[in-house]
Specification:
Beta-carbonic Anhydrase, Chain A, binds cobalt (II) ion
Length: 205
């Protein structure tokens, strides 16, 4: 009796469904991946990249962490960006946040969450730099505004990586987008914060 019997059962059902729909589905995937998008999103279980944008396996390269943060020294995220841009040659990098993000909310309260507070420090800084914008807001409104500001900040952080800047200076085309997802209705919103060139980045920074 294997561990996780429910998951193995679900896996076999899913694999059979995919093969029934398209007999060569797994053979085609086994040949390689050519996703057009890199998705950098929150690890929240309610925000699964492929399902939200209704894309099949093979169509989006994904990196997720708590509160979709892109830190200049995070080798994990930087390696994902490098692989996506230089090898997979994605045309779009999507930073996707979501309203009501628990990580963002935790960054706004002063209680001790342990280790994660070091990670959330990056979001506390965004809050600190934009204090005036939060005046008169309810706690929920503050969280949602900070979720949006966090996405915008992380778009800048992606655009400022050496990988992305070098890609642009070598004439490569690539757009970094900032989106936010609403768990309450399943709808994605474009935060109109896209950056597609070094000139664009200079203008925004
Ligand atoms: Co979240």
């Amino acid at each position: 009796m294997p561990d996780l019997p429910e998951l193995f059962k679900r896996n076999q059902e899913w694999a059979a469904e995919m093969t029934a729909e398209n007999a060569s589905f797994f053979d085609d995937l086994a040949k390689g991946q050519t996703p057009e998008y890199l998705w950098i999103g929150c690890a929240d279980s309610r925000v699964p990249a492929n399902q939200i944008i209704n894309l099949a396996p093979g169509e989006v390269f994904v990196h997720r962490n708590i509160a979709n943060v892109v830190v200049h020294s995070d080798l994990n995220c930087l390696s994902v960006i490098q692989y996506a841009v230089e090898h997979l040659k994605v045309k779009s990098i999507i930073v996707c946040g979501h309203y009501g993000c628990g990580g963002v909310a935790a960054s706004l309260d002063d209680s001790d969450h342990g280790l994660i507070d070091n990670w959330l420090r990056h979001i506390k800084d965004i809050n600190r730099h934009n204090k005036d914008l939060f005046e008169g807001m309810t706690e929920a409104e503050k969280v949602d505004l900070l979720c949006e500001l966090n996405v915008k900040e992380q778009v800048l952080n992606v655009a400022n990586t050496t990988v992305v800047k070098n890609h642009w200076s070598n004439g490569g085309s690539l757009t970094v987008h900032g989106l936010i997802y609403d768990i309450k209705d399943g709808i994605l919103k474009n935060l109109e914060t896209s950056i597609c060139s070094l000139e664009d980045l200079d203008a925004r920074y």
